[in-house]
Amino acid sequence: MEIRLKNCFLAVDDHDKAIAFYRDVLGMEVRNDVGFEGMRWVTVGSPAQPDVDIVLEPPGADPDISPADRETMAGLLAKGVLHGVNFTTDDCDALFARVREAGGDVIQEPMDQPYGVRDCAFRDPAGNMLRFMQPNS
User: What digits encode the pLDDT tens for the residues 56-68?
Assistant: First the structure.
């Protein structure tokens, strides 16, 4: 039996800003943009991984969540403590330079880690942490 990742979900508070970041800065494809019951879901992904999607969803997208819980989720998103995604790259330093030049919110500049990768980290426009790792040769 084979198990593979298909989707991961990140909460965003402004889909247009998120699209500009994921598409224009990171070079991802916008694969889907769907509205339903006043909410919006945008699916993005790397051209190098056509079978893996990142779904950008509103905070507290569950239709059964209470307004108070939705407000709490939005507050946690604003603090940058909800989600994060780790990516691999073949050039951590070039990726860092591109994202920083585009105004990305730097968390960590590229550095060699003792566990065998060179990595850096940013926050996306909604505050989600994105870490980019390059295996050391």
Answer: 998 878 878 888 9
Place of tokens 């403590």: 81
CA distance 132 to 111: 11
- Rounded to 5°, the CA angle 90-108-86 comes to 50
Map residue 131 onto helix, strand or coil: strand
Cα gap 126→86, rounded to integer Å: 16
Two structure tokens written together for 46: 């790397």
Which distant-in-sequence residues (6+ apart) come within 8 Å of 111 by Cβ? Answer: 118, 119, 120
Global confidence as pTM: 0.90
* 55 backbone dihedrals φ, ψ, rounded to 5°: -100, 120
